[in-house]
Fold this sequence. Notes:
Layout (H helix, E strand, L loop, with lengths): L1 E12 L2 E12 L3 E5 L6 H8 L7 E6 L2 E2 L5 H6 L2 E4 L11 H14 L14 H13 L15 H14 L4 E5 L7 H18 L3 E4 L3 H7 L2 E6 L2 E6 L1 H5 L2 H7 L6
Parallel strand pairs: 3-8, 3-9, 6-7, 7-8
Antiparallel strand pairs: 1-2, 1-4, 4-5, 9-10
Helix pairs in contact: 3-4, 3-5, 4-5
Amino acid sequence: MTVLQTDGLTKRFGGLTAVDEVDxxxxxxxxxxxxGPNGAGKSTFINLVTRRxxxxxxxxxxxxxxxxxxDPHEVxxxxxxxxFQTASIFPDLSVEENAIIAALAAEHGSxxxxxxxxxxxxxxxxxxxxxxxxxxxxxxxxxxxxKNLDYGNKRRLEIGIALAAEPDMLLxxxxxxxxxxxxxxxxxxLIKEVKEELDLTFLLVEHDMEIVFDISDRxxxxxxxxxxxxxxxxxxxxxxxxxxxxxxGAEE
Length: 252
């Protein structure tokens, strides 16, 4: 089953074409990384897919239905979840409450925060939240205040929040940004374990090519808004067009 498909996806800003007729598909259980040099259009593409930007042309299908015209929160409720470059958590709530909020939002849509006072009325939501915290290694810290976690665990919580929505596809934008080498290694292992355990479908944007080659089933390379190569890590690494695109350049 194809989870995400874009057809001729294009975004123009005045005379600049940031994303230029991009065709991409991601199948269920597939881990795909989107890479490219500075200004390639990666962030614009992600913002189009998550409905934070309106395309100039083209279509986006999620679970084989067009999502054009939907608001970002509606796309989330259809099963697309995203983790950001910086940890997006509720710092004054507990680790468990952060996960419960995500599970509640996915299960019930809009809700008031006082639902947390009655979270025992939602045993399934609490179960999902606690299972996610177990999977990301934070169950033992579930009662800790989120702001008191170290940076690496805040990022793990942020991934846990995204997973608590039980997504059909997870978008990860620089999940290891700002981490120490030890935290990075731990997070990469976490992503690999979660992918295997949950048959997770993901789209990853990441600067660290070692990480990209380690965890990706397939890599899509953008340059100047266009797809210039795609394939397995080995195929992409040996592609002359990719080497030319990166030669003397810095990644976005």
